[in-house]
Amino acid sequence: MNGGQILTAAQMQAAEQAIFDAGTSVSELMETAAGGAAEWIRRIAAGRPVTVLCGPGNNGGDGYVIARRLAEAGNPVEVVAPIEPATDAARTARARFCGPVRSSGGEVGGQVFVDCLFGTGLARPLSGELALLLRDLAARHPLRIAVDLPSGIASDSGALLGEKLPAFDVTLALGAWKFAHWSLPGRAKMGRLKLVPIGIAPVEGAARLIGRPAIPPPERDSHKYCRGLCAVVAGEMPGASLLSALAAQRSGAGYVKLLADTAPAAPPADLVVETRPLAEALGDERIDALLCGPGLGRGEGPHGRLETVLAAGRPGVLDADALVLLRPEMLGEAAFVATPHDGELATLCESFAVRAEGRRDRARALAATSGMIVVAKGPDTVVAAPDGRLALAPPSPSWLSVAGTGDVLAGIIASRLATGREPFEAACEAVWLHGEAARLAGPAFTAEELAKTVSRSLAAVLCPVAA
Question: Disulfide: which of 146, 175, 257, 445 matches 168 by Cβ 3.0-4.6 Å?
């Protein structure tokens, strides 16, 4: 499961340098990258007039190549370049473009606007003059395309380096995804995202985009225990743990149990509920994964239940109240996945003396310090592992912002763990399945409706069965 690598500006620069060291010139690589982008733009423009805004660097050079390729294909093209080219490759690209180049936007109009002003590596706001030009040209074109990144967005964070930046309909990432492509608030300005390959090799230690998983169906001779036994620990508010169990039943595990002090009223007929003392119930050696936290409570009793779970030495998921109660000394050797939202993430960072800012850096630092896989939930979810692996989730429907959907995600992760998936991969698979279930559920769903839709998202990614 890999939706492609995500590179920092420094990693991208080093990856391009490796191509240059192998004998490709900057101009040759520019022709490859901009040529691929030009083909996308040609198809989108469908013969309509195009305006290309070029900056002074190699992103501007890409713009000149795009303009030349479009003109050769018969598209009417106008180029606006408020600053002269400042790199050899950009100057070469401009020289190869035979059409006129305007120094100001003036009354330039058209149907398609292409932003090649600045790309990866921009770290400061646009000047007032350039920001005004960018906004003005974008406003005068009904269709807007950004090449690599929209100008004014920080590539490593997705931060907006200015106010009133225009929104784009399409963004064409060159060579590899950047963090800004999948991080808010910048991501919200980019429209549809397309990746233009240019021959970038895999980069060691690079983050990745969580892609569509490939999950095998059970073997023909499977039974419930070989498919995995997932135990969900109930607490003071049983509704949350029931939601988790409902999702776990639909995420691949062969057997899901609810471990409760007292049986909830009218539990699902197909859910096994155990009311033995928790320590005794956890002695079942067939348990493959645990989930503790949804509806647990935060008093002395819930604290004791959490300690009992952690002492059991089984891999599992810690969510919700368990994350508030958790202290570093409580963790043992078993592998755990923590699933905090931003508030819980801040609490965990305080408990584990982690000093970092932003969801991504906090998740990485917390994973390294605690030894847990950290699924930092939000509109741009991040999954971090203690060994440095990092994955970013593609955007999910905003309808997920309803109570109980986090309990559903926790149940999916626990179920994937129970099937035998490695914790980081289990977390990434679950995040994808959770988002796909939200898409399939449509608008205004409840957490229970989402949980019941998980089996449909799982069905969508099952590998073909060998004959």
Answer: 146
pLDDT digits (tens, 9 = 90+) for 146-180: 999 999 999 999 999 999 999 999 999 999 999 99
CA 33/CA 148 separation, integer angstroms: 10
Give the model confidence (pLDDT) of 350-408 as tens digits: 999 999 988 999 999 999 999 999 999 999 999 999 999 999 999 999 999 999 999 99
Q: Is 330 exposed, middle or buried (0-12, 13-18, 19+ CB in 10 A)?
A: middle
CB atoms within 10 A of CB 455: 17
d(CA 5, CA 12): 11
Task: Judge contact between 167 and 135, C-beta under 8 A.
Answer: no
Planar angle of CA 459, 461, 466, nearest 5 degrees: 90
Burial of residue 313 (CB within 10 Å: 0-12, 13-18, 19+) is: exposed
CB 50 within 8 A of CB 112: yes
SS3 30: helix
Which residues neighbour 410 within 8 Å (Cβ) at sequence distance 6 or greater? 244, 247, 291, 293, 294, 317, 319, 320, 339
CA–CA separation, 16 and 376 (whole Å): 31
- Structural domains of the chain sorted by starting position, each given as residue range(s) with its CATH number in brackets: 5-206 (3.40.50.10260), 229-459 (3.40.1190.20)
DSSP letters spanning 189-205: GS-EEEEE---PPP-TT
